[in-house]
Amino acid sequence: MNVEIISLPQFPDRIRVSANCGANRNDNTIRYDPWSMANGLKRIDNTDTEVDIRAIDDLLARGLTLLRLPAALERRFLHDHTSRRMRLMMGSGVLVSFMFNWLLVADAVMIPDQFDQALKLRLLVFTPLVLLGLLLVSRMPSTTVREGMIFVSSLLAVGVNVHLCMSSQAPTAGPYLVSLASIVVFSNTVARVRFGLAALLDLIAFALFVWAAMNIPSAPFEVMLPAGVLLLSLSVFTLYGCFSLEMEERRTWLIRLREQRMREALVEANERLEQASRHDALTDLPNRHHFEDAMATAWSQAQQRSQPVSMVLLDVDRLQRYNNRMGQAEGDACLRLLAATLKRCNAQGQAFIARYGGEEFALLLQGVSVHEAAALAQRIRQAVIDLHLPHPDGVAQRVTVSAGVASIRADAPHATQAQLMAAADEALRQAKQQGGNSVFAFGTEG
């Protein structure tokens, strides 16, 4: 590339670098200062979000009749509620280890002959096992195991009471079976055993109540019948409450998850809109709006580092004639191919490339001198020639480009971004006046 330095009256503090189609091609590799911006745009795929929202809407519309979500959602539901369930387990465990021993007062009145055994079972067996379970449950990673431990502790409490009543010879031992109601109520409402396990626990408790009532001599029918009705009623009522609470818990979680996914979808949609406003769909390059934002960022950085900022403005020679002769579709294909050529010439990522206008492309280079920017423009010009795209009305019957190059030190007195853009536009006009297929440059010395 031939370089001629000329003082320009309208730009007395700048140099001009001119290269035309007759200049020798410079194949030497030029090292540029490292500065790059993303020329590709992030593709956002919100398919998963849309699927999640549709699936949640379907679940909410159908209702959760079986208190179980699809496998993936069920795992997430249990995971999201792990901390809350752990706090509930610990609190109810401490409470039951204290309150269960209060039954010793009733034991002393209702089954005095079994008080010593009750003292041992409640204080020395049940309570230590519950406290050990609390210690272990915090270390259990499995939700199923943790829920199972609550069920087992409740079942153990039922077994202790039934055993004490059946072992007693007191006349009030049979009626004392009604104490199972307190265990059922506690398990279903305070400990909040999961509905399936709670239903199983209540069924076992009622079956043991009937069996014990039939085998305890001091269990008159006229007393045990209302006691059984009471136990059954409390089981049904508390199970209904347990079912309703668990249903509402899952439904509320689904609604919150849906809101969360909708917020994520909204953020993604806003990002896509933002990208669309900064992206040229035809060439898959940033558009002029994005280029101007990149220019502002590069200019600010260059001012802080006392660097030059260079701009290359490229224009496809006689593109309108190409469209008239070859068709609009071929013209669009030509622009896409030129965009790909620009990316290939910018393999090192030193330039920010954008579609500047209808048939114009712009390259922004921070910390790159006018000579280096002009050399890059010359390489691009030659790469376009090497494409051998036929152009009936083009220079040498091929598609060619002209380039205007400008470079200004960002920290120079009175230097502005608008001045750089105007200089690049003027340089392009000068290149076009040379007949096209040429490179023309303005630049600040130093």
Describe, in plain words, how this protein is organized in 3D:
The strands form 2 sheets. Strands 1-8-7-4-6-5 form a 6-stranded mixed sheet, with helices on both faces. The chain has helices at 47-62, 71-80, 82-99, 103-110, 115-137, 143-167, 180-190, 195-215, 221-276, 288-305, 319-326, 328-345, 370-385, 417-433, and strands at residues 14-19, 279-280, 285-286, 308-316, 352-355, 360-366, 401-409, 439-444. The protein is of the alpha+beta class and 446 residues long. The protein is 59% helix and 10% strand. A hairpin with a 4-residue loop joins β2 and β3. It has 2 domains: 14-40 and 281-444, Alpha-Beta Plaits (2-Layer Sandwich), CATH 3.30.70.270; 47-264, no CATH class. α7 (180-190) packs parallel to α9 (221-276). It is rod-shaped and about 120 Å long.
